[in-house]
Each structure stands twice: as structure tokens, then as C-alpha cells.
Design brief:
The strands form three sheets. Strands 2-1-3-4-5 form a five-stranded parallel β-sheet, with helices on both faces. The mean pLDDT is 89. The chain is elongated, with a radius of gyration of 19 Å. Helix 6 crosses helix 8. The chain has two domains: 117 residues, 3-Layer(aba) Sandwich (Rossmann fold); 91 residues, Arc Repressor Mutant, subunit A (Orthogonal Bundle). A hairpin with a 4-residue loop joins strand 6 and strand 7. It is built from eight helices and twelve strands. The two termini are 34 Å apart. The chain is α/β, with parallel strands linked by helices and 219 residues long.
Amino acid sequence: MAEKILIVEDEALVGLEISSALQKECYSVTGIVDNAEDAFQKIEKDMPDLVIMDININGDINGIEASHIIEYDYKIPIIFLTAYNDKATINKAIESSPCGYLIKPFDRQALYAAVSLALSNRAKPELITLSQECQYKANASELYKNGQSISLTPKEKQLLELLLRNSNKLVLFTTIESELWPDKLVSVTTRRTLIHRLREKLGTQSIETKKDQGCILKI
């Protein structure tokens, strides 16, 4: 199956040129978007293997800021493609640990090399045993129960990874809400429903809830 790549580029012609170059090499382009919000929506829908990100994109969030969110929430590698080549911009971009940095106008061979390297350097999935029934490949965000792949929504993945980072420790409900919904208030029902869905997929004994406090992932 062809690797899936999302292009985040505010210049339509450049986006189309990148897409054409990638498809010529048999990569699957999941879309071309020009802002961070649309990028997040496409990622949640298609879960690409790689994002090619321009630094100067439309909207309130620039490419560097968007890359931090993508890395934290989705763990997808990123290649920056930009017209900026000053040292300050490059240093700021490097801080987000991209898998590549290409300067416009891009050379197709350099693009192919960067994409190939980024995809080949993806970390091998780390298998975490959650219980006798469940294992989780953390870097691939894949849950397996009795050897069968179990589908997780993006929010379920975020919750599981938050609980994993604090396994066998109490994670406060306020922490869950601020981590998963940083920009809005959510109802108790929304948070409770999410925890219930994840508990059902992991097994009812895996997540212990402390009334009015938080929950614990027991592994």
C-alpha cells in the first residue's frame, strides 16, 4: 500500500507541483490544504504517514506551531518546505525536530530523497502490554486485543497515551480535559463517555475511576 502524504501549502501551484511529483513516485497524496485547521481535520480523517508543511501558511497558526501540535497529538513525521532560508527561521524550525527541511523552489530529487528518508526513519512500533488481552504499538498508535486490531478514534488515542504516560498513577479529570480539549470547555458527559468507550475497548478492569477525581490506567 502506498504511503499517504498530506501537503500543507498556501501557494496552490506549488501544492499541485508537489502533489504531481509525489504521485509520479507512487505516493498517495491525501490532500492539499493551506491552513492548520484544515490540516488537523485531514489528519484525523486520513491519518497520513507524512506531512509536508510550509512554514508560512494561512490562518492564525503558522507551520512551525502546527508541527508541534501534529507531533504531539498524532506523532506524524514532518518535512518543512519553505521559501525562508534565514538562520533564525531555520533554527526555530529545527526546534520542532522535523524530518527534513527543503527550500523553495524545490528540486524533485531532493524532495524524493527527503520523503524517502523521513518514511524510512520512522521509529519501529513499540509494543506495550496493557493486559493479557491487549497490546499497544505506541509509535504506530495501534491497539490489539487478542491479536485483532481495534480501531481507536483520535480522542481515544490521545486519552490512552495520556494515561500511558502516567500509568498506574491518578490522572485528574481536569488534566484530561485540559490536555484533550485545550481550547474549549467540555461537559462531564463528553469526558465520561470518552473514558467509558476506551475502557470498553481495553477491558473493564484496565481503567479505574476515582469518583470526582480522575482515573488510573493499571498495567
